[in-house]
Design brief:
The chain is mainly α. The protein has helices at about 1-15, 20-45, 60-70, 75-105, 105-120, 125-160, 185-230, 255-260, and strands at about 50-55, 165-170, 180.
């Protein structure tokens, strides 16, 4: 029973999604998690400790680092992944709720179908009536995910840009004058920054592609239903076959001529 429920849950979840939504988006989300967990800490883990400022003024280094990175890149990317995964988790929860409710009501639905069949009427598909709700829920979570991905990309560009500088000029209290601070391994951090930016851009593109494919598929279904329900007459008409005519010319014999002469 548990296996049947899980199979139905997976089927309901992927009923409206295309291969882009079923394969590419989860793979990219998983790749982002693995990349952040495996390499993020090694690349950006020593960012604050290796942030060296040429001053001995107490509190100046902390003030300059706060001006350089108001939000740590690791915390920003972790928050981004969690925020992007929330709409998908909500959709999965809605699908699970729909599957459990349909599973509980399946006995009543079967009884109704049996009674309708006995009365000579066709059975109804209970899950088909709920599928438009799942479709709109899936489209809504894609729209929210698209907005969140775009906002995260804009925030990442505003906070960090596309390149990690090797030095930073700081003018903040309690620093006395302009202080120059240096970062460790700026090239490695720039490569990782661009990689995370590229993965986020791919997720944004594939989410938009999923929405476009869903719209095209919906339009195709509506057009196909209209075309099939219009009832165009076929050009095949019953052909009238000419029956063979046995009215051949009668050839009179010699005996008939003799009788006619008499």
């Amino acid at each position: 029973m548990c296996g049947r429920f899980l199979r139905r849950l997976v089927a309901e979840e992927s009923w409206h999604s295309t291969p882009v939504g079923r394969l590419l988006l989860p793979v990219l989300l998983g790749f982002r998690l693995v990349l952040l967990a495996a390499s993020g800490t090694g690349v950006y883990g020593d960012e604050q400790s290796e942030f060296v400022c040429h001053t001995q003024q107490p509190g100046c280094k902390a003030a300059c680092y706060d001006a350089f990175h108001p939000l740590s890149p690791l915390r920003f990317w972790a928050f981004q992944v969690i925020l992007v995964a929330v709409p998908s988790a909500l959709y999965m929860g809605f699908t699970m709720y729909h599957g459990i409710r349909h599973w509980e009501d399946s006995g009543e639905v079967k009884k109704e179908e049996e009674s309708l069949i006995q009365q000579g009427q066709g059975g109804t598909d209970a899950s088909g009536a709920e599928r438009p709700r799942l479709l709109w829920a899936y489209v809504a979570q894609l729209g929210v995910r698209l907005v969140l991905e775009g906002a995260a990309l804009g925030g990442q560009y505003h906070l960090y840009g596309f390149k990690m500088p090797s030095s930073f000029a700081c003018r903040r209290e309690p620093c006395l004058g302009s202080i120059t601070c240096n970062l460790s391994r700026p090239t490695e951090k720039t490569i990782f920054l661009k990689t995370m930016f590229g993965v986020s851009g791919l997720c944004l593109f594939f989410t938009l592609l999923e929405l476009v494919l869903l719209g095209l598929g919906r339009w195709w279904q509506i057009w196909k239903q209209k075309y099939s329900s219009s009832g165009f007459p076929t050009s095949e008409s019953p052909r009238k076959h000419k029956e063979p005519n046995d009215n051949f010319p009668v050839v009179e014999s010699k005996d008939q001529f003799r009788i006619a002469e008499l």
